[in-house]
# Entry
Amino acid sequence: MKYSSKLIADAVSEFQKLPGIGEKTALRLVLHLLKQDKQKVAYFSEAVSRMRSEIRFCSRCQNVADHELCDICGNNMRDQTQICLVESIRDIIAIENTNTYRGTYHVIGGVISPIDGVGPDQLNIPGLLERVQAGGVKEVIMALSPTIEGDTTIFYISRKLKDYEVQITSIARGVSFGGELEYTDELTLGRSIATRLPYENTSLKSS
Amino acid sequence: MKYSSKLIADAVSEFQKLPGIGEKTALRLVLHLLKQDKQKVAYFSEAVSRMRSEIRFCSRCQNVADHELCDICGNNMRDQTQICLVESIRDIIAIENTNTYRGTYHVIGGVISPIDGVGPDQLNIPGLLERVQAGGVKEVIMALSPTIEGDTTIFYISRKLKDYEVQITSIARGVSFGGELEYTDELTLGRSIATRLPYENTSLKSS
# Structure
């Protein structure tokens, strides 16, 4: 498209680099910002720029942090004996929003995937081992993607942890609440039967 | 949602203010930016901030401009005797992308709509009259929305222009190319029959 202003064209082109935003949407966003007060647009621009330039990563779990430790690692009310292993910050946000977990996290940054060139060395596994070696950790909860790569990563890490006195658990896999059995894929449904639980254990309660 | 960093929360909340962007999308955009180089995010933030703070509006037609006059008003290759009247900058971009119009524009900033509290005084109509009074304008093309408000505005402006030697035209309204007659609304289809043209005039050619 042609814009009669280079400033507009530049802003549209920057918005277009964001995921899921095409040229028409980018233009709509830019024309929206153009109608706002200069001050409001300055806030927007500054929030984005500060977010990237000032963000830190927790020295313990690699979660995003405003200080040396993130709000979760630095919180004494959280159970520091539990570590929930996740791939990314996004997963922490998802689990936090369930309001059911009171332990800590550890972000490894992905899963082992030879096809994408990701080996164990690219992941933040040494950080996890250090935390376990330091003692005080009773349980490591594997909350990785339920895929071949996720399972491979869980297997790899569980081997690394086998010499330590730590319980390794995995989040439950099975049919979704509200889902229909007939539309659940065979693998999930088959596993959910194989890993069935005594009825008393299946009620929702926080850990 | 809960974010363990205020920087992230602020950026998400700013993105959420944009039209069509909810909290989940805002978070996806923020986490995407978080993975980019600091330099790239600085470019993004700067392009947005400069766009709003340095943008100017053409003193002649109110289009966006990087200088005193916009690229269209300042271009001697454009036919300065034709003025295409539009509601907004977005309409200029849409018409420019058709590559069929070589005249100039005039942005009035909306249409007369008493229900929204917009009267003729809120629109940039005096600017248009000045340009016509100054002479040299042969044609004013009305390219406003095909709504009651658009028609009212066209009527109002045409009355204001009636003392000047200037031809007033309106963009054609009728069935869309590729549209199906049976799904065209009655008003459009009825008008398209009433305003039918000799066959020779209906081939696509640039003005």
Q: What stands out?
A: Residues 33 and 40 of chain B are 9 Å apart (CA to CA). Chain B has a mean pLDDT of 89. Chain B has two domains: 6-54, 75-206.
